[in-house]
Amino acid sequence: VNNLEPKNVKPGTALDVKETEILTDTLSLLKDVDKVDLYFKKLTVSQHSVKAYIYDNLVVEGSYKSISENLDNLSQVIEDLHKKKIKRGTIKVSGNGYCSFQPEVDTKDT
User: Fold this and answer.
1) Taking CA 73 as the corner, what is the angle to CA 70 and CA 74, rounded to the nearest 5 degrees?
2) Which end of the chain lies in a sparser environment, N or C, as judged by fewer CB atoms within 10 Å?
3) pTM of the predicted model, to two decimals?
């Protein structure tokens, strides 16, 4: 998880960060994601939004709430992309239950 600044790091104790609300929202999201058997490689978090990396170049973007409330739709989009062997792009999740996908175009000359 990126963008959390630890206050005190002591082995065997709970993580204490300056961004307590962000940590709480992140842990809640991770709990919801675990229920649908979905996992992220890396998270970049802020006060209002999350970038969740499925692969290095396949990212889910949205608010904590919109991602948590649309995990079934998100799982289906990810499954469809996986079947098509698509590993690059951005999945944007909005509050209305809508997931959009923007492919990342390879900019190398062929």
Assistant:
1) 80
2) C
3) 0.82
